[in-house]
Amino acid sequence: MKQLFALFFATSLTMSVFAQTAKDRVTHNDPSKYREISDVHAGAGSMGFTQLIGRNDLSTNFLYLHSGVINPKSGIGHHFHHTIEEMYVILNGEAEFTINGRTSKIKAPAIVPCKMGDAHGIYNASNEKLRWLNFAVSTHKARGDNFDLGDTREGAKLDPIPVFASGRLEKEKARANNRLYSGDGVLSRRIFGPDVFSTNWDHVDHVIIPAGKSTEEKQLLGYEEVYFVVNGSGTASIDGDQTAIVADDSFYAKLGEKTIFTNNGNEDLELLVIGIATSKEMGLGIKKPLVEPKAMVLQMDFVVPKENAEAFEKMYYSIYVPAMTVQEGYISSKLLRRYSDDLSKQIQAEDTNYNYQVQISFDTEANRMKWVGSEQHKIAWPAATSLSTEYKWRGYDVMGDDDQR
After folding, report:
1. CA torsion sign, 371 to 374 to 376 to 379?
2. 116-132 b/e with 16+ CB inside 10 Å = b?
């Protein structure tokens, strides 16, 4: 297998998508299971490779966690991606990182984000094997791409100071009580935040838990996390289900789950944490319930004879919507058509003769009432009711939604 990307897809197809327990989610980074591959993205030499976490393990757009050993005088060739972002991690030694044709040496333990659209590569110029990780997040669930540039980066001119983003796992920079991870003696640091990435990749954190200590319970609201145990041993509790973790283990927690990490060893338990948001546009976390309504919604149910169905739907787009869009406080509307009888029975839906619903939303009930009294309403409402044999309505205050307007 010559291309790392092709190998990823072949490997991921064999991985289970039904991790049921915390223990099932833990994968140990075992070099004896590495596959030897060469010419990776047209790179020099060879490397050992495996996949630890795959594209179907999480519900967000996390794509993969790869691990391996880059052999001496070997590397991953210069290439780029149109739809995914990666982050290279080296756990020992020193590597030559390239971003967009500019190369610098960076010492481990180091991380370098490979932003979407930026050409990147890595080369091990030393005589020692290099331990390597690669995290990836896609813009589309379970999809990726790559374009190779045919450049090994061997003998590349080195910049003494990197002209691209990079970070290191430095314990001395981690701080207690910085609101990322709570717990007696627990230290943490956010190395990269969401602004570094174009995808829904949200954060890269470094967490250090002293011997005999635990993190306080933390719930994943609006995001999921992937973990790699850099050092130490302990337990991970996911929604109360505990499992042992040791150095070189990887695992994950899903949306809404609660996590606690405990160090029951004799040295620091050190975690590299990758966070993936469900949607950056929607923001992280679940917002608190509203005290006052955000808006209002009126739901109007109609019984529309089959012979009038096409005209009713056309009426909505050609008359009802244009009449509302000019009204003060108008937000949005929807036209809903009831499922077929067979599908309604299949999902055990409520039995009803109403086969269409129009939902309209205004910022306030007062503005909706202005719409009711408008000249446009005198045209739109009869156009709807004349095509139906029965109708009713009810009003609601909007106390929460995922609309950011």
Report:
1. positive
2. bebbbbbbbbeeebbbb
Q: What is the pLDDT of residues 339-374, one digit of tens each?
A: 999 999 999 999 999 999 999 999 999 999 999 999
* Number of Cβ atoms within 10 Å of the Cβ of 187: 23
Topology of domain 4-277 in CATH is Jelly Rolls (2.60.120)
Measured CA angle at 123 (ends 120, 128), to 5 deg: 150
* Orientation of helix 375-385 relative to helix 365-372, angle to 10°: 80
Does residue 109 have a cis peptide bond before it, meaning omega lies within 30 degrees of 0?
Answer: yes
- pLDDT, average across residues 174-196: 92
Which one-letter amino acid corresponds to residue 137?
Answer: V
Quick one: how far is CA 228 from the chain centroid?
A: 17
| Cα(361)–Cα(315) distance, integer angstroms | 18
Q: Domain 295-398 is in which class? A: alpha beta
User: What pLDDT, in 10s, does the model give residues 229-248?
Assistant: 999 999 999 999 999 999 99
Spell out the residues 6+ positions from residue 201 whose beta carbon is closer than 8 angstroms to its own: 85, 137, 194, 274, 275, 276, 277
Give CA angle at 249 (19, 268), nearest 5°: 130
- Per-domain residue ranges for the chain? 4-277, 295-398
Q: pTM to 2 decimals? A: 0.74
CB 132 within 8 A of CB 114: no
